[in-house]
Amino acid sequence: MNRNDIRIGLFGFGVVGQGLHTVLERTPGLRARIGRIGVKDRTKARNLPAELFTFDRDEVLDDPTLNVIVELIDDADEAYRIVTGALRRGKAVVTANKKMLAEHLQELIELQRETNTPLLYEAAACASLPVIRNLEEYYDTDLLEAVEGIINGSTNYILTAMHRDALTFAAALRKAQELGFAESNPALDVEGLDARNKLVLLLAHAFGLVARPEDILAVGITGISDLASSYAREKGLVLKLVAEARRLPNGGVAAAVLPTLVRPEHELARVQDEYNGLITQSNFADRQFFLGKGAGAVPTASAVLSDLSALTYGYRYEYKKLHQESTLALTPTDAEADVLVTFGAEHAPDRADFSAIHEYFHSQELGYYLTGTIGLDQLAQAAWLRLPGISIVRLPTPLRAVTTAPASETGPVVRAAWATDEAVSPL
């Protein structure tokens, strides 16, 4: 590969693909140009010459004049075939497909080693935030204790619109879709699955831990209740969807994606609209905060552009911490969180799942809530977690090692002072 002359085989010419074309035209210093574009829809009108496009994947992958493959499609299975096919042909790859990466990360790491071919994916983590390379390089010898952040711009836009503009969830989602921040099928975003996929990537580069997405608890924002929102306003807290990974004293790691109440002075409380924010906590550098746009065509394309530039000087991920931290593992049985659960008379959480119940309250108008401490493993396996009418939000305390006594050893339930309706327990 001529590092100073990049010829791109591009897959996908949607929002981000067109954004990449735009930023390449405005970056004359980088000698990179698009040589061929693989697309699926034969009927869609496009603003580039028709001969630039093809509907045959192999026509792009086998083209000897193309030395870098950029994959920007929304089909994770097809993206996997494209990326692995390119690596096996010795072509460097840049991708933004976090679902594909999270589901096949260990295999893709091994394939890079076998083929001696780089795979870069800065755009898959936090769009415009330069997160992956910082975790790989800046923190390569500084022991990271935690990473936490807002890493999905779509859900942050929706939550901002609900809180600041008093929109309903449905109205905020429609606006996010109109602006191109959310997909027409937004399930990956609003159910917390996109953030979970990104957290898999952060775990690998922050801690040297390759996890499966299904091993990480993820709760989205679709079930957030009016009572949870009222609780947040009454307490002066801000509701965000937060991904967090934290070392535990026993050598394990706790990781989860949960709607979370944050205090107004917290860095993440100030992350608005489609922006992402990531906090790192380390032994030497202490606490650092990254802020940038996490959704949209040009911000995401800027991260792809950064990866293309990195390829010109031979950059590749070394996954240094995978060698340094070979025994590190997710240990949800050793971690717990403080949560607010709101519910109705039809379905209720099982009190036995909690190691402590701190507050309990019933309002005739809004329903029931409790606050308590629960293990991540117990929460992930709770039969009531996904039942209709149940909403769970993490309180403003970090994930931590299990410290509390079992429920049978705790003191009495404490009556909430937040409101004055009579407490009538359905538990």
From TrEMBL:
Aspartate/homoserine dehydrogenase NAD-binding domain location is: 12-122
Spell out the molecular function terms from Gene Ontology. homoserine dehydrogenase activity; NADP binding
- Tell me the domain of life: Bacteria
Question: Which residues belong to any copy of the Homoserine dehydrogenase catalytic domain?
Answer: 130-308
Q: Which InterPro entries match?
A: Asp/hSer_DH_NAD-bd, HDH_cat, HDH_CS, NAD(P)-bd_dom_sf
Its UniProt pathway annotation is: Amino-acid biosynthesis; L-threonine biosynthesis; L-threonine from L-aspartate: step 3/5; Amino-acid biosynthesis; L-methionine biosynthesis via de novo pathway; L-homoserine from L-aspartate: step 3/3
> What Gene3D superfamilies does the database record attribute to this sequence?
Dihydrodipicolinate Reductase, domain 2 (3.30.360.10), NAD(P)-binding Rossmann-like Domain (3.40.50.720)
Query: What EC numbers are recorded for this enzyme?
Result: 1.1.1.3
Task: Provide the reaction this enzyme catalyses.
Answer: L-homoserine + NADP(+) = L-aspartate 4-semialdehyde + NADPH + H(+)
Q: What class of enzyme is it?
A: oxidoreductase
A Gene Ontology annotation in the biological process aspect, one of them, is: threonine biosynthetic process
Which keywords are on file for this protein? Amino-acid biosynthesis, Methionine biosynthesis, NADP, Oxidoreductase, Threonine biosynthesis
So what family is this one in?
Answer: Belongs to the homoserine dehydrogenase family.
Q: What name does UniProt use for this protein? A: Homoserine dehydrogenase
Lineage at the top is:
Bacteria, Pseudomonadati, Bacteroidota, Cytophagia, Cytophagales
